[in-house]
Amino acid sequence: EAGVTQSPTHLIKTRGQQVTLRCSPISGHTSVYWYQQALGLGLQFLLWYDEGEERNRGNFPPRFSGRQFPNYSSELNVNALELEDSALYLCASSLGQPRSSYEQYFGPGTRLTVT
Amino acid sequence: AQRVTQPEKLLSVFKGAPVELKCNYSYSGSPELFWYVQYSRQRLQLLLRHISRESIKGFTADLNKGETSFHLKKPFAQEEDSAMYYCALSSPSGYALNFGKGTSLLVTP
């Protein structure tokens, strides 16, 4: 069974630009989560989508946004990039509600560098 | 506010020695707690969760609500246990995970 996939693997952007990251969940999973892993800050929750709806977001500014498509894949968009947005962005998927203890399966991540 | 604290950034033990990775949390309510592990050049993956009360790869973790801790233990460390370990708590308002900053475990021969 294919795991969670993310694209691209790496990218380099300039401050002020916009970026879109993509995630395909495991087949059958309806929930997709986005996390940011910045140096020194650990893994921080960004966004959670389930059944096409944004269910929760972490403590990030509105320039971080995303969506989930009917096939449950997801995009994370970051506008007006800042240097501190440089991080590894991880996507995870799980079975959907109602159980919070469903295991989350992580993708390999997208490494974003903002210069 | 929820918080997960892993006080040790790095823990180095000898092969065969016992290992304990500490995790403390602050949470109002009944938490769901997890340990995730990331081996070198591999994805982050679930190691164990408190509700299943299982032992995975010789690791166990007991939820102590009185001490608000969920320490990960193994009686005899192996070199292949060297990895980054993250303690995580499930958010009550949505099922996202609140992670600690991680502990890097190094098991030396």
Describe it.
Chain A is 0% helix and 52% strand. Chain A has strands spanning 5-7, 10-13, 19-24, 31-38, 42-50, 53-57, 64-68, 74-78, 87-94, 105-106, 110-114. Chain B is mainly beta and 109 residues long. In chain B, strands 2, 5, 6, 9, 10 and 11 form a six-stranded mixed β-sheet that branches. Chain B starts with a strand and ends with a strand. The model of chain B has no long low-confidence stretch (mean pLDDT 91). The A-B interface holds A 3, 31, 33, 35, 41-45, 48, 55-56, 58, 90, 92, 94, 97, 99-108 and B 32, 43-46, 49, 51, 86, 90-102.
Q: Which quaternary structure do these chains form?
A: heterodimer
Number of helices of chain A: 0
Beta content of chain B comes to 35-45%
Q: From the helix content, strand content and strand pairing of chain B, which structural class follows?
A: mainly beta
Average the pLDDT over all residues of chain B and give the rounded result. Answer: 91
Number of beta strands of chain B: 11
Number of helices of chain B: 0
Distance between the termini of chain B: 41 Å
Largest sheet properties of chain B: 6 strands, mixed
Question: Can you lay out the helices and strands and say which pair or pack?
Answer:
The complex is a heterodimer of chains A (115) and B (109).
Chain A: E1 5-7, E2 10-13, E3 19-24, E4 31-38, E5 42-50, E6 53-57, E7 64-68, E8 74-78, E9 87-94, E10 105-106, E11 110-114
Parallel strand pairs in A: 2-11
Antiparallel strand pairs in A: 1-3, 3-8, 4-5, 4-9, 5-6, 7-8, 9-10, 9-11
Chain B: E1 3-5, E2 10-14, E3 19-21, E4 24-26, E5 33-38, E6 45-49, E7 60-61, E8 72-74, E9 83-90, E10 97-99, E11 103-108
Parallel strand pairs in B: 2-11
Antiparallel strand pairs in B: 1-4, 3-8, 5-6, 5-9, 7-8, 9-10, 9-11
